[in-house]
Amino acid sequence: MLRLPLPSLLLAALLTGCQSVQDRPPTTVATLQPADLGSGKVRVTATTNMVADLAREIGGDRVTVSALMGPGVDPHLYKASARDVRTLQGAHLILYGGLHLEGKMVELLEKSGRAVAVTEQIPHDRLLRPDGAEGLPDPHVWFDVSLWKFAAGTTRDALSAADPAGKAQYAQNAAAYLRQLDALDAEVMTLTHSIPKERRVLVTAHDAFNYFARRYGVEVRGVQGVSTAAEAGTQNIQALARFVSQRGIPAVFVESSVPQRTVDAVIEAARAQGHTLRIGGELFSDALGAAGTPEGTYIGMVRHNAHAISSALGGLK
């Protein structure tokens, strides 16, 4: 028999009431019911700060938004706390990444009756399914800005369903934000294409950047797999060190939400093979930067990453 930790048991009870978790199908935008708002704002709870940023951009002054996971938090390993349970209980709308980004927590969220995955409208044929992931899609879709536009559209639609009176404002805010995303997509394309072709290789701690690679024309190598729950073996590290040495790659990157030790191990292994590698900078992968900084927004985070990658690999600074 599966034994859930106390926070998970509380979460199941509070989000589903007396109805069994198994009895209720996952909520989608199409099945989301209007919230009982009274005269107040829409209380939105997001799992990650990337999703929270979407809600703030599109919700504007009609919403109050809280994020369960802050800067530097790894959603693959996150476990809900009792405080999270209370926050979720008080939400009119819950937005989450989906595609198994939040792990087992999603099994409970999707039965709540008011939780929507912002990735639900992304066409299935545009999702990547890496080898070794048991057929599951790679959840890191935000690194392809053209895919994150679908998430913005879903957020607009979910807010409109929960708060029909705000539909026109949500549509206006979303249209303005989508124009910003189009400009960002073009900027990232320009930066990556400025890198010499032989150096368009992005080496990071784990395979979070596959969508970035496909969209912007770079090759990616991660020490770990798509989930940070996977361990990096000595064989993987040695093979990656040989690869960067043979290709003459000048830099590897650390990630804000992943320990640096695996990248350090690759640098040491490359040094033993006679190749000098340096850290090209810190990239934001599974979480945004601190609130109030440029990297604390989705657009600022993507722009930071693109400039760091381009500069370290010999492209535009």
TrEMBL record:
Residues of the signal peptide: none
GO MF term list: metal ion binding
Keywords: Metal-binding, Signal, Transport
Alphabetical list of Pfam families matching this protein: ZnuA (PF01297)
Domain of life where this protein originates: Bacteria
Any one of the GO CC terms: cell envelope
Subcellular location: Cell envelope
Record GO biological process: cell adhesion; metal ion transport
Family: Belongs to the bacterial solute-binding protein 9 family.
Name of this chain's protein: Manganese transporter
Species whose genome carries this gene: Deinococcus ficus
Lineage: Bacteria, Thermotogati, Deinococcota, Deinococci, Deinococcales
